[in-house]
Design a protein that fits this description.
Blueprint: H1 7-13, H2 54-66, E1 71-75, H3 78-86, E2 94-98, H4 103-113, E3 119-123, H5 128-134, E4 139-145, H6 157-166, E5 170-174, H7 179-182, E6 192-196, E7 210-214, H8 217-230, H9 236-246, H10 249-269, E8 273-277, H11 287-293, E9 300-305, H12 310-319, E10 324-325, E11 335-337, H13 349-354, E12 362-365, H14 371-382
Parallel strand pairs: 2-3, 2-4, 4-5, 5-6, 10-11
Antiparallel strand pairs: 1-7, 6-7, 8-9, 9-12, 11-12
Bound molecules: ligand P1T.
Ligand P1T binds next to helix 3 and helix 4.
Length: 383
């Protein structure tokens, strides 16, 4: 049996081997839609690039390796990966999801899949007992996002996975904010890991990509069937870029986490800041769970300026010079976002405010620049 590589080696070598044709060390970009057959069905494992592509296969092996899973599946975006998971279910089936989650995920649940008869309940997953109250014999999926976007709540994956198992319900974890460097949900009993690989995995804000990882053979077969039937697959160039990004994931995540911690501490002591949401603080309500399931706390955090309203939050994000005001996260460069008007604008105001996404909330994706420059930039923007 092949030796299991440690994480920091698996990012570089996991599921990879030198190219058989010319020994290329980096996996070639197989920019082809189809493959020659010597006789009908006589091919080398690849027949059409919606179904399989060698560059995509290399990425799928890589993500499986670093998520400690058996199978990886790549998609044209994080949303396409989530869409594929939801297509496993039938009208009348029920889903329980975290109530604080990416606005696009909320929109996919409510605006697309409710129309096809799925019943989705958005639940505060603080306490597994609360999730247990919503489980019944129609519940097919529990969808966890942790840490949540943008409130940085933390869900106890192990506890929820145990509930799912006892109820014969699949448990999926959107692992976008953590990346497998910080957290590997399959090890805690989850059935499916999902990524917007657009973020930390690709890591350079240059591609849009989604990934799933599973262990179960039958589940992989079903997901691959939907992937091929509906066709939301990524092109080989994007697979190459994501594969290349993954090779430095461990180094980037270490720096994101170090810088994130320093920026969180700076904001926390700032007289003009009301509240900082970051699970690394010992008084964060889920700090102990975060500590138990995450290796460090990453580069994402949110904050509210003192006495803040919409205008003061907008003023701060407009005055930032090194942080770029933009959607997305997880790239090498620092980004700032205003969830209420950007990433979470698709959630009705009264619903988003219930989970804390108020008009004055600012979200930061702390990059890997010199942290002193980042702190000085925030200081001058806060004023
Ligand atoms: O953008 P896409 O690759 O389709 O991934 C969607 C997605 C899924 N899950 C989480 C937790 C996400 O944060 C995202 C995308 N989020 C942003 C674009 C954002 O700025 O929050």
């Amino acid at each position: 049996m092949e030796k299991k590589l440690r994480f920091n080696s698996a990012t570089i070598h996991g599921g990879q081997s030198p190219d058989k044709a010319y020994g290329a060390v980096m996996h070639p970009i197989y920019q082809t839609s189809t493959y020659a057959q010597s006789t009908p069905g006589g091919h080398q494992g690849y027949e059409y690039s919606r179904t399989h592509n060698p560059t995509r296969s290399a990425l799928e092996r890589s993500i499986a390796s670093i998520e400690n899973g058996k199978y990886g599946l790549a998609f044209a975006s994080g949303m396409a990966a989530m869409d594929t998971v939801l297509k496993l279910f039938n009208p009348g089936d029920e889903i329980i999801s975290t109530n604080d989650l990416y606005g696009g995920s909320y929109r996919l649940f409510t605006k697309i899949f409710e129309k096809y008869g799925l019943k989705i309940q958005f639940v505060n997953m603080d306490k597994p007992e609360i999730v247990a109250q919503y489980l019944n014999d129609k519940t097919r999926l529990i969808w966890i996002e942790t840490p949540t976007n943008p409130m940085m709540n933390v869900v106890d994956i192990r506890a929820i996975a145990a509930l799912g198992k006892a109820n014969n319900t699949l448990v999926a974890v959107d692992n976008t904010f953590s990346s497998p460097y910080l957290q590997q949900p399959l090890d805690f009993g989850a059935d499916i890991v999902m990524h917007s690989a657009t973020k930390y995995l690709a890591g350079h804000s240059d591609t849009v990509m989604g990934l799933l990882v599973v262990n179960d053979d039958a589940l992989e077969e079903q997901l691959a069937f939907i992937q091929n039937s509906t066709g939301a697959v990524p092109g080989p160039m994007d697979c190459f870029l994501t594969l290349r990004g993954i090779k430095t994931l461990h180094l980037r995540m270490e720096r994101h986490s170090e810088n994130g911690a320093e920026v969180a501490a700076f904001l926390q002591q700032h007289l003009k800041i009301e509240k900082v949401y970051w699970p690394g603080f010992t008084d964060h309500p889920y700090h102990d769970i975060a500590k138990a399931q995450m290796k460090a706390f990453g580069g994402m955090l949110s904050f509210i300026p003192k006495g803040g309203d919409l205008k003061s939050a907008i003023k701060i994000v407009e005055h930032l010079k090194i942080f770029t005001l933009a959607e997305s996260l997880g790239g090498v460069e620092s980004l700032a976002g205003h969830p209420a008007s950007m990433t979470h604008a698709s959630i009705p105001k009264e619903i988003r405010e219930k989970s804390g996404v108020v008009d004055s909330l600012i979200r930061l994706s702390v990059g890997i620049e010199d942290v002193q420059d980042l702190i000085e930039d925030l200081d001058q923007a806060i004023g």
